[in-house]
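A reminder before we start the practical. When you read a complex entry, don't treat the lines as separate problems. The point of joint prediction is that each chain is placed relative to the others, so the output describes one connected object in space. Small molecules and nucleic acid strands, if listed, are placed in the same frame. In the example below there are two entries. Take a minute to note the order of the lines before looking further.
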Amino acid sequence: MARQGDMNAFAEIVSRYEGKIARTVIGMLGETAEADDVGQETFIRFFKSIHSFRGDSSLGTYLTRIAINLSYNVLKKGKRTGSLVQIWNEEEKEMDIVDESQDHEEKEKGEMIDKAIQSLEPGFRAVVNLRLVQGYTTKETAEILGLPLGTVLSRLSRAQMQLQGKLKHLI
Amino acid sequence: MKRGKFYRWLWMSEENALTETRKKKLDRAMKKMPDLEKSRREIRKLSELLSERDYHFRPGFVDRTMNRIASQVIQSQNAELFPGIAPAFKWISIAGVAALFILVFSFYLSQGSLSIESFFGTNSFSDDNLISYLLYQN
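Here is the predicted structure of the whole assembly.
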């Protein structure tokens, strides 16, 4: 149905995979305006190339691969500045303040983890995001990133050491 | 080097993706190297910690995406409906520039100059001619 340009069916796909793509691009770029843009671009690319999707991998994996590649492009172009540009609007900020009072400790912990992930090199960050945040297996991570299994394992071990140093009070 | 290999195998063992032989080798190594056991605990804790992270786009992500797709579809439909416009415009522009060039060249050949006076046909006018012309008009 989506292949015939049915916009409603495609909107359903976007809705279904929005969370997965958010975990990928926000995990790679942080909560920035670029992340939202890359998220949209991921689905636009898929829409344009929907006829070439042969179903060799699951749709989620296919979209994740597009999202990772687009995130890499943004990082390579140096579009991203060091600081995270918050994109929440005022209303959301207010909601966030309520959350903060409710679960301040959890939020702080989450921010610490995000900061530690963001401090990793993009290649390590991608591996950590796919394997540890999203729960792909090491083999699937290697396939998505187009890397040998040994490279993924090596990056995981090195990233683990770096993260342990940064999150030692949480581990 | 061997140590590094066992650290990497720890990740595979967490997914039950090690062969029986490697699994046995890792078990033996873990008995000899206590920091491998420590590393396994850290991997588990790190996995647990990071798997809790969840990220979301701003509300309205689906609408924003679908609007962008819709506008791109309209653009491509326009291009399909009027496919000859862009090439036609290119050829009209080239023909126009060529015609202008021929006009200027022929003008140069007939007048021998490209000055403003020769363009308006006033290059043979002297001040006296102009004054007598104006006097005659009055």
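Discuss with your neighbour: The radius of gyration of chain B is 42 Å. What might explain this?
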